[in-house]
């Protein structure tokens, strides 16, 4: 009897101990997840935040390195930003100051920049940037619940500006000057498209006149719901040395993040490149025609180039079913003239001022519009070139190789079509 009683007491005590330990450990998990350690007074600025959000974002927390990290680019350290950025008055007046959320964010950011604040000093470090934003958005955007899911997701992550790189190509531009860098937006699953690019217009080589072309593909990560392709992508990266991968989910509304990560990478790894071509992985580029256009430019144009298929007087899509839908409560105003994101080219020398200028401008869900905003703020006008067909060529020209021989870029071609056109325009038998 006594033994059973003792046993019961013992059991009771150990149960209590377990409960105690368990609840304590839960508490720790919760608090460590919800409240990152406080540090270096980074003010959580926001437009109209009624209650001061107590949560502070640490600035010197080591960035969590994901498992397969090979090299990591220092997130904010190495790329120096201009101490002050001059935002053009054209841009200031183009984007009205009104009640829409993005407009409010922009104008408060401009005011801070005018006071000499380095806008990038407020960028929260990567793993924490989403933590508090959701509440902030709910407070500032009344009808956010009616936004499409992807857009809401974009908003929560809007302050996440500098994803760490999971795959880098640190030596891409080390040796020999690069004349043209092809920066191709791709996704992990697009192996075939990338191979078609490597086999044709994106082949890394020296062209006539000593013009060296190099290529990099920019990838985010696949969704956890997708098959795991990471081993294959790593193999591809080792084999071809042209894959860059940053730690964010690849999605349409994360393309702005991808662009900006790429600008940062180029400043770090290819700071002396003459020109950068940014484009999709399903375009066909007539590389010799592009090179001859670029080398024909006079030096003043060559140093301030932002060229392609210019889209003028566009305004936001207000149809919720459109993939580029922008609600009124998010953005109200016109878009600046911008160059279609299917493929455009910029001067390497503009990368640094461009990156600094973009630092003042909150992320916008549409990447080519965003780049257009940065250029407009920088005071560089887009240059229209008739050879960039981001909306395809006329139906009846689609089978005509001579039409392809004259153009610089055409959008939406399958890997097989890309190879066929490329071989066709290089055939010695072709007479146009
Ligand atoms: C942990 O946080 C979640 C979400 O805030 C909450 O639902 C849960 O009750 C918390 N658990 C503990 C043990 O505090
Ligand atoms: C900004 O503009 C002022 C006056 O035009 C000029 O003196 C200054 O150098 C410019 N700053 C930068 C970073 O371009
Ligand atoms: C640099 O150029 C030289 C001479 O053209 C060539 O032999 C060498 O392979 C090049 N290096 C790289 C990394 O492209
Ligand atoms: C962008 O990437 C981040 C980081 O992976 C992710 O949390 C977010 O959901 C992505 N945003 C969109 C709109 O897909």
TrEMBL record:
Chief location bin: Golgi
Any Pfam family matching the protein: Galactosyl_T
Cofactor(s) needed by this chain: Mn(2+)
Subcellular location: Golgi apparatus membrane
Molecular function via GO: N-acetyllactosaminide beta-1,3-N-acetylglucosaminyltransferase activity; protein N-acetylglucosaminyltransferase activity
Reaction catalysis annotation: a beta-D-galactosyl-(1->4)-N-acetyl-beta-D-glucosaminyl derivative + UDP-N-acetyl-alpha-D-glucosamine = an N-acetyl-beta-D-glucosaminyl-(1->3)-beta-D-galactosyl-(1->4)-N-acetyl-beta-D-glucosaminyl derivative + UDP + H(+)
An individual GO BP term: poly-N-acetyllactosamine biosynthetic process
This enzyme's EC code(s): 2.4.1.-
Mode of membrane association: Single-pass type II membrane protein
Pathway membership: Protein modification; protein glycosylation
Quaternary structure (record): Interacts with B3GNT8; this interaction greatly increases B3GNT2 catalytic activity, independently of B3GNT8 enzymatic activity.
Name recorded for this polypeptide: Hexosyltransferase
Naturally occurring in which organism (per UniProt): Hippocampus comes
């Amino acid at each position: 009897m006594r033994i059973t009683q003792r046993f019961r007491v013992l059991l009771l005590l150990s149960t209590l101990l377990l409960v105690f330990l368990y609840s304590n450990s839960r508490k720790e998990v919760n608090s460590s997840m919800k409240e990152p350690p406080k540090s270096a007074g980074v003010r959580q600025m926001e437009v109209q935040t009624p209650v001061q959000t107590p949560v502070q974002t640490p600035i010197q927390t080591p960035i969590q390195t994901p498992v397969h990290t090979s090299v990591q680019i220092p997130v904010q350290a190495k790329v120096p930003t201009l101490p002050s950025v001059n935002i053009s008055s054209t841009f200031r007046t183009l984007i009205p100051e009104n009640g829409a959320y993005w407009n409010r964010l922009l104008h408060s950011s401009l005011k801070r920049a005018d006071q000499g604040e380095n806008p990038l000093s407020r960028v929260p470090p990567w793993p924490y940037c989403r933590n508090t934003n959701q509440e902030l958005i709910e407070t500032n955007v009344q009808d956010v619940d009616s936004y499409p899911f992807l857009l809401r997701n974009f908003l929560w992550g809007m302050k996440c500006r500098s994803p760490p790189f999971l795959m880098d190509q640190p030596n891409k531009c080390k040796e020999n000057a690069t004349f043209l860098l092809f920066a191709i937006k791709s996704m992990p699953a697009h192996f075939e498209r990338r191979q078609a690019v490597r086999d044709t217009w994106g082949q890394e080589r020296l062209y006539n006149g000593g013009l060296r072309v190099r290529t990099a593909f920019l990838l985010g990560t696949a969704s956890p719901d997708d098959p795991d392709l990471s081993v294959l992508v790593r193999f591809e990266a080792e084999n071809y040395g042209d894959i860059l991968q940053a730690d964010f989910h690849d999605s349409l509304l994360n393309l702005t993040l991808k662009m900006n990560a790429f600008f940062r990478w180029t400043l770090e790894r290819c700071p002396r490149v003459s020109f950068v071509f940014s484009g999709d992985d399903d375009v066909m580029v007539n590389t010799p025609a592009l090179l001859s256009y670029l080398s024909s430019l006079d030096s003043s144009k060559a140093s301030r180039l932002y060229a392609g298929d210019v889209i003028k007087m566009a305004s936001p899509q207000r149809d919720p079913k459109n993939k580029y839908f922008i609600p009124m409560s998010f953005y109200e105003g016109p878009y600046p003239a911008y160059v279609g994101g299917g493929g455009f080219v910029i001067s390497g020398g503009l990368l640094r001022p461009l990156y600094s200028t973009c630092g003042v401008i909150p992320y916008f869900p549409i990447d080519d519009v965003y780049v257009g905003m940065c250029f407009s703020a920088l005071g560089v006008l887009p240059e229209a070139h008739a050879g960039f067909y981001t909306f395809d060529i006329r139906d009846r020209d689609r089978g005509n190789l001579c039409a392809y021989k004259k153009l610089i870029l055409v959008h939406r071609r399958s890997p097989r079509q890309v190879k066929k056109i490329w071989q066709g325009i290089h055939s010695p038998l072709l007479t146009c």
